[in-house]
Design a protein that fits this description.
Chain lengths: ~475, ~200
């Protein structure tokens, strides 16, 4: 019988069925960070338990590390305490810790792939909802809460309900100036922020076949913003080429064996899906969010929605709530909205290709007066690569602040925060009220090149016009 | 591990209306700088409850009529966004014992169940009925009956929906899965032996 990758991974990792009908699922790779794990280690201690598979647990610091200070103690004593707590827990339990001193630190969803830890046909869990990122490799990856982190530490398993699988085909080609970020923002706009509840999303079609691993990661990353617990792409030659030679990837004779095994996990042709959605790549526009959830987006050429034109009472209320918070006028073009801050980074768009693509266009341009622009590589590794290619110099010359690796202004648990009602053009993943650190701060989500276009013009702009990207 | 069997929960309600209420709103990230969950109740819904100077905004949780409520009523896709368990922990530490809403984001639902805090689904019309009863009389007692999948209040009853696995876990006192998972550890080693990547 033909099966989807999801089914194959689920079956090979099922330990048993629990009394309440849930599956006890083996989690092969557990990634932890400083914010959601300290309490889990505390729970472990309280129950007298220990870490079952420390060699399958990997830690780093990302959420609260300052990006403008390298040496400890950090200025924020609470952040300092959390980082030290994680370091202590890792030492005590024999867990590999990609600390800053290793040169391998970074956002957990960037570090896993970079190190070759993230592999096809595996299960991954992490106390962070953007764990779905790892699905780009054909892994099934879950964001979990702290009590479940405890469960995975103690038993290398967790209790889960099986998901349905929705196949999402993106056919044809993307137009020039349209990026992976636009694909996922468009999908969430189309399917809704809770459209994926109960599903894992399997992304495929010609657009995904051509995508690099980094582009696939950008899409899988935001699956959760569409309500899907997991998102993945079937492994192929692009996946294997990315993994080859990475520190934790199989080597020597083991490589061919691993590749053969990885291939066997890909969804079988003709396998059944619970639902299928097809979108034409050519129809996806550069997309910008205007509201307070990632589904509230429009094409850069569109206007801000008017609640008076809403067809449902619910929709009207949510547009009104968003416009009031965002201080925007209904019916106005989104293009031209003045911004205060530009943020380039995060687990969605903080990889080498994100900075590389922007650098191509940023040379000779400068951040508009009055705009604060920061670029934050997603990992120390990304930072080193950017430096070796002179990319950091391009950003600095253009007036961006070039920072150390971390989550930074995506969730603003470190000192990188919006002030007052500043409006930020952001390459991150969430535009919730207060998300970027100020209770009245405002966020527009968009692709890295659109962030750069906003940075240099001081307004939300069409990157294709600002940078002369040929319309194709 | 013996846990409380959660079959019925009774208490007063408070309605926090709206759809897509995300976990950043339930507990803003800056209050997650802590190594225990203990003090989180204080910061529940902080930024929609308090002004920058610390004074209270108009919010149902600041309304004296609803003080002491233990059942939260809300709209669709409640708890979307971040997987932070800090959100259900903040609700629980604030005194909530259950949530009644139109629907939930999945990670949030699971995190609540694991803490023994049931999340019941109800139709919009039914949530409105409960909310109307609470507005008319904040002292009205709401009873969530997990065994009968219903919610009773002010002489009325509505249907409550909860995923079977969650209901089973709650009414049988197995909502914290750790006991069950530990029993399966022998089998974990067998399954792990068939997965080459685990031995590397």
């Amino acid at each position: 019988m033909s099966k989807s990758l999801f089914q194959k991974v689920w079956e090979t990792h099922t330990v048993r069925t629990l009394a309440n009908g849930q599956t006890q699922l083996l989690i092969g790779t557990h990634l932890i960070h400083e914010v959601t794990s300290p309490q889990a280690f505390g729970m472990l201690r309280d129950l007298g338990l220990t870490v079952l598979m420390p060699h399958r647990t990997f830690a780093t610091v990302d959420h609260i590390v300052p990006t403008d200070q390298v040496s400890e103690p950090y200025a924020d004593p609470l952040a300092d305490a959390m980082i030290k707590a994680l370091r202590r827990s890792c030492r005590e339990h024999g867990i590999t810790f990609f600390d800053r001193a290793t040169g391998k630190q970074g956002i957990v969803h960037i570090v896993g792939p970079e190190q070759g830890i993230t592999q096809p046909g595996t299960t991954i869990a992490c106390g962070d909802s953007h764990t779905s990122t790892h699905g780009a490799f054909g892994a099934i990856a879950f964001g979990i809460g702290t009590t479940q982190i405890r469960d995975v530490l103690a038993t290398q398993t967790m209790a889960l309900n099986q998901l349905k699988v929705r196949r999402i085909n993106v056919t044809g080609r993307l137009r020039p100036g349209v990026y992976a970020k636009d694909v996922i923002l468009h999908l969430i706009r189309t399917l809704g922020v809770n459209g994926g509840t109960g599903y894992a999303y399997e992304y495929g079609g010609e657009v995904f076949d051509r995508f690099s691993m980094e582009e696939r990661m950008t899409v899988c990353n935001m699956s959760i913003e569409g309500g899907a617990r997991a998102g993945y792409v079937n492994p192929d030659e692009t996946t294997f080429a990315y993994l080859r030679g990475r520190p934790y990837a199989p080597a020597g004779a083991g490589w061919d064996v691993a590749v053969a095994r990885w291939k066997s996990f890909a969804s079988d042709p003709g396998c059944a899906y619970d639902d299928t959605v097809t979108i034409r790549g050519e129809e996806i526009p550069p997309t910008v969010t205007w509201g307070i959830n990632p589904g509230q987006g429009v094409a850069i050429t569109e206007t801000i929605p008017d609640p008076a034109k809403a067809t449902a009472a619910d929709e009207k209320a949510s547009i009104e709530e968003a416009l009031a918070y965002m201080k925007l006028s209904p019916g106005a073009p989104i293009k031209g909205t003045r911004i205060d801050v530009a943020f380039l980074g995060s687990c969605t768009n903080g990889r080498l290709s994100d900075f590389q693509e922007v650098a191509k266009y940023l040379k000779g341009r400068h951040v508009a007066p009055g705009v604060k622009a920061i670029a934050v590589p997603g990992s120390q590794g990304v930072g080193v690569l950017c430096a070796s290619l002179g990319i950091d110099r391009v950003f600095r010359d253009a007036g961006f602040e070039w920072r150390e690796a971390g989550c930074s202004m995506c969730l603003a648990m470190n000192p990188d925060k919006l002030v007052g009602d500043q409006l930020c053009a952001s390459s991150s993943n969430r535009n919730f009220k207060g998300r970027q650190g100020s209770p009245t701060g405002r966020t527009f989500l968009m692709s890295p090149l659109m962030v750069a276009a906003a940075a240099v013009t001081g307004r939300v702009a069409d990157a294709r016009e600002v940078f002369g990207v040929s319309p194709g | 591990m013996s846990l409380e069997k959660i079959t019925t929960i009774s208490g007063r309600g408070v309605h926090v209306p709206g759809n897509d209420i995300d976990t950043d709103r339930i507990i803003p990230a800056r209050f997650m700088k802590c190594v225990t969950f203990d003090g989180l109740g204080e910061y529940l819904f902080h930024d929609v409850r308090k002004n920058a100077d610390g004074s209270a905004k108009q919010h149902p949780l600041n309304d004296p009529r609803f003080q002491g409520a233990t059942i939260l009523l809300s709209g669709a896709n409640f708890g979307c966004g971040s997987s932070r368990e800090h959100a259900p922990q903040a609700l629980q530490k604030h005194g909530f014992r259950a949530v009644i809403a139109e629907s939930y984001a999945e990670i949030f639902f699971g995190n609540c169940t694991t803490l023994g805090m049931p999340c019941l689904g109800a139709s919009r019309a039914d949530v409105q009925k409960v909310a109307a009863a609470v507005a008319a009389n904040p002292a009205v007692e709401i009873t969530i009956d997990l065994g009968r999948s219903e919610i009773r209040f002010a002489g009325q009853a509505i249907r409550a929906v909860i995923r079977d696995s969650a209901r089973e876990a709650l009414i049988n006192g197995r909502w914290d899965a750790i006991g069950d998972l530990l029993e399966g550890v022998g089998d974990v080693k067998r399954v792990a032996a068939g997965l080459p990547y685990l031995t590397v």
